[in-house]
Write a structure and sequence with these properties.
globular, alpha+beta, five-stranded antiparallel beta sheet, 12 helices, three-stranded antiparallel beta sheet
Length: 454
């Protein structure tokens, strides 16, 4: 079953990654926290040379501050890119090497999550609950999770994932999540408790159909950057880790291949692609490949559940066809004139909360006096297209209140205001913007959300 979790461990990934970091350092791996890879470097022959970290200590206008420090260049025979979902360097690599030529556009979801300390009598360590559907309609892909952690204190992690291929521009993922917590089956869990954490991040949901070419001269893609998540299980960490192991073995083989005659200075670990296909990662992705797109019919949720039950979990994905996602998520929004606005209930500040109070829990921080990391390709597009045709969906799909349309000082129109200091680096804006006019680039290293054990 897709949500069968018996025998698994419940851990907080933030704590797990912190522990993994100490293990890596003990083995001699150098880790550079607070430094962000902002640029791909190339050899003269076009192969990847490495990456550069961004310069720090720069004013908003681009001039250097007194504490200006030039970024570092890190060179390698093979550079492994593991940025997570919708990485800004991977976007450049897709274009540079045409890596998405033979795959479908990636499909995404936005995941929102909270940590709570609840009343001890309601705590059931090891218990996991999943739901689908409500509060969204049958044509919007969405589900929730609730994990009872076993860390000595009565703590739970609760969250919601909403597919970013939704069509109604009035959907507000943050508000849908807050509304979910008031469902009679879960609301008592939160009463008397205390919310101690909040966060959000985009997820890859395209599966096998949306995997790009994984290798190129000088490097390869691993983890959630290309997208190895098992969508019906909402699990991807195991596949991401395995892809890293396979990549490491493939890179090692490539570097120490005495018979290798590389046409480029940066080496291409070509065996990685086939080694992934020969692994259990590929077998798992192949089995569930049609689960997500099966929801994209007139039957919506009901058709998806029926299809997944029959073809994925009974036939184990052996059907001789592969379904399609039907285009990129940003193309799926309907004009606001064809949709009904959604009236969301006001938060009660006990179970549900407003967005700015939530962002405060992320600890996010960006120096105001630095070059913008949320950039617009054309300043006129947000009003001319997004506001005019879709009633400004960016002010609703952002889970951190970054975007809002405000009145011009002249009083004869509106403009898009970007509150970049609120950004929690979820990448949703770069994905869902119907104009593809928002470009997320890397802020100064170490800035952004300061999640503690999320």
């Amino acid at each position: 079953m897709p949500t069968y979790n018996h025998g698994n461990y419940i851990v907080r990934l933030g704590n797990f990654v912190k522990w993994l970091g100490t293990q890596a350092e003990e083995l001699g791996v150098e880790i550079y926290p607070g430094y962000a890879a902002s640029e791909v470097l190339y050899h003269e022959d076009g192969s990847v040379k490495g990456i550069a970290t961004n310069d720090v200590g720069i004013h908003k206008d681009g001039s250097p501050k007194e504490n200006f420090e030039r970024g570092m260049e890190l060179h390698a025979k093979v550079t492994i890119f593991s940025e997570g979902c919708h990485g800004h360097l991977a976007k450049q690599l897709y274009h540079q090497f045409n890596l998405r030529k033979n795959c479908e556009p990636q499909s995404y979801g936005i995941g929102l999550k909270e940590l709570w300390e609840i009343e001890p009598e309601r705590h059931r360590p090891g218990r996991i609950e999943h739901t689908v559907g409500w509060p969204l309609d049958k044509n919007t892909y969405a589900g929730t999770f609730l994990y009872h952690l076993d860390e000595g204190s009565p703590m739970i992690a609760v969250g919601m994932v909403i597919g970013l291929d939704y069509s109604n521009p009035y959907i507000n993922p943050f508000q849908e999540f807050q509304r979910f917590k008031h469902h009679p089956s879960v609301v008592d869990m939160f009463r008397g408790g205390k919310r101690i954490g909040y966060g959000a991040r985009a997820l890859n949901e395209g599966g096998m159909q949306s995997l790009p070419k994984l290798t190129f001269p000088g490097g390869c893609l691993i983890g959630c950057s290309p997208g190895f998540m098992n969508v019906p299980k909402i699990k991807g960490t195991h596949n991401a880790m395995k892809s890293g192991m396979i990549a490491a073995e493939s890179v090692f083989e490539t570097i120490f291949d005495e018979n290798l005659n590389s046409p480029t200075q940066g080496l291409n670990p070509e065996s990685y692609e086939q080694n992934i296909r020969d692994s259990w990662v590929w077998k798992e992705l192949n089995m569930v490949r049609n689960s997500r797109p099966s929801f994209n019919t007139a039957l919506g949720l009901y058709g998806g559940i029926l299809y997944t039950g029959i073809f994925t979990w009974i036939m184990r994905g052996k059907e001789p066809w592969t379904l399609h996602h039907g285009g990129a998520d940003y193309t799926k929004l309907k004009p606001a004139s064809e949709c009904k606005p959604i009236e969301y209930p006001k938060p009660d500040d006990k179970v549900s909360f407003d967005i700015l109070t939530s962002v405060a829990l992320t600890g996010t921080n960006h120096n105001h006096d630095q070059p913008a990391h949320l950039t617009l390709l054309n300043d006129d597009v947000p009003v001319a297209n997004n506001l005019t045709n879709y009633d400004g969906p960016e002010q609703r799909f952002c889970p951190a209140g970054v975007y809002e349309f405000v009145d011009l000082e002249s009083g004869d129109g509106k403009r898009l205001q970007i509150n970049a200091q609120n950004c929690i680096h979820c990448k949703t804006c770069d994905i869902k913007d119907p104009s593809q006019n928002i470009n997320w680039v890397c802020p100064q290293g170490g800035q952004g959300p300061a999640y503690n054990g999320m």
